[in-house]
Structures are given as structure tokens and as C-alpha cells.
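Subject: for your reference before the review

Hello V.,

The reviewers asked for a structural picture of the protein, and I figured it would be easier to keep everything in one thread rather than splitting it across files. Below is the amino acid sequence we used in the manuscript, unchanged from the supplementary table.
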Amino acid sequence: MATPSTETGIVVGVDASASSAAAVEWAARDAELRDRPLQLVHVVPPITMPDVPVDYARYAEDRAHEITQDALKVARENAAPDRASQVTTSVLSGPIVSTLVEISETADMIVTGCVGESAVERVLLGSVSTGLVHRAHCPVAVIHNETSPSPQAPVVVGMDMSPTSELAAAIAFDEASRRGVELVVLHAWSDMGPLNFASVNWAPIEWRNLKDREEKAFAHYLTKWRDRYPSVTIRPIVVADRPANRLLEQAENAQLIVVGSHGRGAAGGALLGSVSTAIVHTAQIPVIVARQG
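And here is what came back from the structure prediction:
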């Protein structure tokens, strides 16, 4: 079977599911915005049964090429005609997640549908998308096919000012800049949940001081991003609440949400933070999980 292109660019793991078609459509537009090549990859898993009939093996090969050709048609329908040469297809053989994880080592981003072809994957987040957001070596975009957000809708990013949120910020600002839309930047300085003081106009002086300090620190933190992306309109939201709830709230009117792979106090890079997990599993719009190396 084919080997992946040396200039990997943006990679889409494709199958015959509706969410895969949505992933190809989204990736074709994003690759065009970034002026990067697009590679459509279908991975044929190993056949574990003994004495596989030759006809079945031939069918699997033919079906794999049908899937990539269908994906190629979708990609070309959603990209400019002059970009046809920058869209390639590959049919690979091996464990699906491990093969895509290996490709991610040289990819700009890997894109997958939120669910796959099997009945179980249509109920739960697909095993391929789950594996990639936990193990990929580059940012992972998980695409849902339930909604088609407006191209004028904002991009949303969660930022906790930790080093791990820097990549999420960079991706979000770049996406908002290329799309020419507002960027909603949400910072939860405390994730204890909303505190119910006796009155909205009353809180202990120490709490108010802490709140003011965090808002000023976040405004200062955003300065460097404003300088790098002067054309991007930023709408900062600073809350003392669980960030996943507030990000999902903002996602209702957004076209894309970007989150870090793990946040404050996360252990290893193989772990996916609780906020990222909630967003990937719950959001109905495209989600980019900012993974790296």
C-alpha cells in the first residue's frame, strides 16, 4: 500500500462515516486558509482471522480506495480549484490509531471525525478520535457533523496562563486571524465554581482584591498576543467558575473552540485534562486540542 507524502501538512483520517466527510470538508478549508497541503489517509487494520480469502482481501483494498476517492471528491468540492494538486490520498495498513499517531509526528495538524463507522462509536466518542487526542504529536481537530457554524462566528479559546496553554493561544489567534473573526478568550482564574455571596455587590475584601489582581494579570498576559495579532478583535472573559461549563456556553455561538491538552497541575503529556475531555466529548462544533511532540 501507499506511503504517506513527505510534506505531510494537514492530515485527515478518513473512513466511510458522516463525521469523516465533515472532517474532510473542514480540513480542506483550513488547509486553504493556511496554504498547506492536505493529505487524506485511510488506514486498513490488520485482518486477524486465519486463512483470509483472497477475495476478501481484494475487497478490503478496493473499498479502501473507494473511501479515499470519495474523500478526495469532498475535499476538492470545498477547496479552490487551483489547490487540487495539494490534496493527496494514501491507503496504509496497520493499527489505525498507532499509524495515525506515527504520521502526526511530522504533521501540522491531524483531523478526525468525532465518531467512526461502528455502532458503538456512534454512541460514544470514536475510538480513533479518543486515541489521537491522547497520543498525537501535533494538534488534533475533532469535527462533529451535527452542526454547520457560521463562518462569521467567533473562535473561542480557553487560556489559564500556564505554559501548556501557550500553544492553544497560538493556534486560536492564528485561526481567528486567518478567518477574520473575533476571538473570545476565556480565563477561569478559579475553578471552584460560582460563589454565592449574600449580594452581588458584596464580597470579602480579600476576594475582591484577588479578583481584581487576576483580571489585571490576564489583561497584561494578553498584551503580547495583541501585539502579535493586531488585526484580531479580542473579547476577554474572566470568570471564577469551572472553565468547561463556560467554554461550552461560549461554544454555542462560535465556529471553533481551542483547548490545551492539559492544564494547571496536569501530570504527563499522555493524559488529557478534565477540561479538554469535557469539551471534546460535549461540544457540537469543531474542537482543536493543542497537542505537541
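For the response letter, the relevant points are probably these. The first strand starts at residue 10 and ends at 13. Residues 54-77 form the longest helix (24 residues).

Happy to draft the paragraph if you're swamped.

O.
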